[in-house]
Amino acid sequence: MSEPEAGLRGRLVDVGVDLVAQEGAQALTLREIARRAGVSHGAPRRYFPTHLELLSAIARRGFAELGERANGAIADGTASPRAQLTALGRVYLEFALANPGMYELMFRHDLLESGHLGLRDTSLPLFGVLVELVGRARPDVNARLVAGALWANLHGVAQLWRWGSLQLATGADDFAPLLRSALDAHLGPETTR
Question: How many whole angstroms separate alpha carbon 19 and alpha carbon 3?
């Protein structure tokens, strides 16, 4: 791909990232992205033959950002698995709450389902980190299943917090106690040694 083509492809994704941040996933139409990028409405099809491929490229940026934040949160990996899971959970919830449009796009089943879009290659390594940490924290369990349940719990906390439901139901003004409770539920109570 030539430099101008790579530049336009990147610009289309950049515009999509900005659009999802401003207006949410439902605003991501090929026509609107092309309009905001200043190109004809057919131009995106040269780089993204389907709408799903463009959405996948935009979501890949979200996974890359979340992955960078996650790597920063667990730092050099010397903290206990529980401490790393706490940091990872906090980063996940903060990302979800600060980027609701991108977060919604990242976990759309139609994007994740298609293996040829390459999104699994970006999303599964992050889940792998979660599995590895759960396995170290709880070697007595099926780490993949417990990590899946913990992820689902965090996803629910993010969604219900964003809607204001958890604040109303629990009286909490910070999600930190809910994160601790989720970790306790899936890993057992934290022990101090």
Answer: 24
pLDDT exceeding 70 applies to what percent of the chain?
91
Identify whether the C-beta of residue 85 lies closer than 8 Å to the C-beta of residue 187.
yes
Give which of 92, 98, 94, 104 is closest to 25, Cα–Cα.
104
Are the C-beta atoms of residues 20 and 105 closer than 8 Å to each other? yes
Any idea what DSSP says for residue 164?
T
Q: Taking a C-beta distance cutoff of 8 angstroms, is the pair 40, 82 a contact? A: no
pLDDT in tens, 52-98: 888 888 998 999 999 999 999 998 888 999 999 999 999 999 999 99
Both structure tokens of 18: 């900005």
For the chain, what percentages of helix, strand and coil (3-state, to nearest 5) are there? 80, 0, 20
Tell me the C-alpha to C-alpha distance, in Å, between residue 114 and each of 77, 107, 129.
32, 12, 22
